[in-house]
Amino acid sequence: MTRPGLAAHATDVKEYKERAADVLDAASEGIFSTDFWREFPLREAAAAHQAIESGKSRGPVILRPHGGRA
User: Fold this and answer.
1) Are 48 and 70 in contact (CB under 8 A)?
2) What pTM did the predictor assign?
């Protein structure tokens, strides 16, 4: 079972973009936390997949296009 994504609550692209901006603003203002296990730079996507497939990950994994923190 998964949670519905933002697209389930938007009726068109304009509304989707507005709602996405609201969510990102709220996260950057600390209104809610975004918990994840680890960030990987995009260039280390294979290592991120390995961590997931091997069962080493303990939560969401983030791929960052410009770096990341281990």
Assistant:
1) no
2) 0.53
